Hints:
Blueprint: E1 3-8, H1 15-27, E2 30-35, H2 50-63, E3 69-74, H3 84-91, E4 97-99, H4 103-111, E5 115-117, H5 129-138, H6 148-156, H7 159-167
Parallel strand pairs: 1-2, 1-4, 2-3, 4-5
Helix pairs in contact: 2-6
The structure holds nicotinamide-adenine-dinucleotide.
Nicotinamide-adenine-dinucleotide binds at residues 7-10, 16-17, 19-20, 36-37, 77-78, 81, 84, 100-102, 104-105, 108, 121-124, 127-129.
Amino acid sequence: MSVGLTIGRYQPFHNGHLSVVKEISERVDEIVVCIGSAQVSHELDDPFTAGERMAMIQRALLENGVEKFFYIMPVEDIQRNAAWVSHVESLTPPFDEVYSHNPLVIRLFREAGYEVHGAPLYRREEHSGTEIRRRMLEGEKWRHLVPKEVAETVEEVDGVDRLRDLAVEDAPT
Ligand code: NAD
């Protein structure tokens, strides 16, 4: 049985991330989706908690035709890149191959002996966490860039207002 792992911050999980998971599901028997930087939330570049990201991803995968068994695992960052793959391995089910476009992630998994693939990029110019957070902050349209279940989760946790509050330098008291 083959198991494919992918990792991202998923701030938030968008249609590009979903297309990667769908691509992986065509190629392996089980998928491990790791939520990276799991310790970070309530920051402008990382507004959502690991639990909120887990809810977004689980709901989106269940409702969008990902039929393979999947695990969603939070992974906190560590200070030592050289030990990071071992750290990931200590938290996840065993896996055989990795899917990423992130140069550091690719380098670290290849050095540890894993085969690393890059699933095709899906309309990267607008399907990026940075662009979606910018649109949320500026009051522009963003819901069409994420699965419906992700937009619902963002709304449930008041995510857009949270992001706007984080952008205020000195909140009135
Ligand atoms: P991300 O959410 O930006 O992206 C996740 C993956 O989706 C990436 O491979 C990205 O290229 C891909 N992707 C993004 N947009 C896409 C699109 N439109 N179409 C198709 N694919 C698309 O997350 P990331 O920054 O790659 O996450 C890596 C995580 O690993 C981070 O949390 C980082 O902190 C962690 N990390 C930690 C250490 C450490 O702790 N020492 C070391 C390396 C990496």
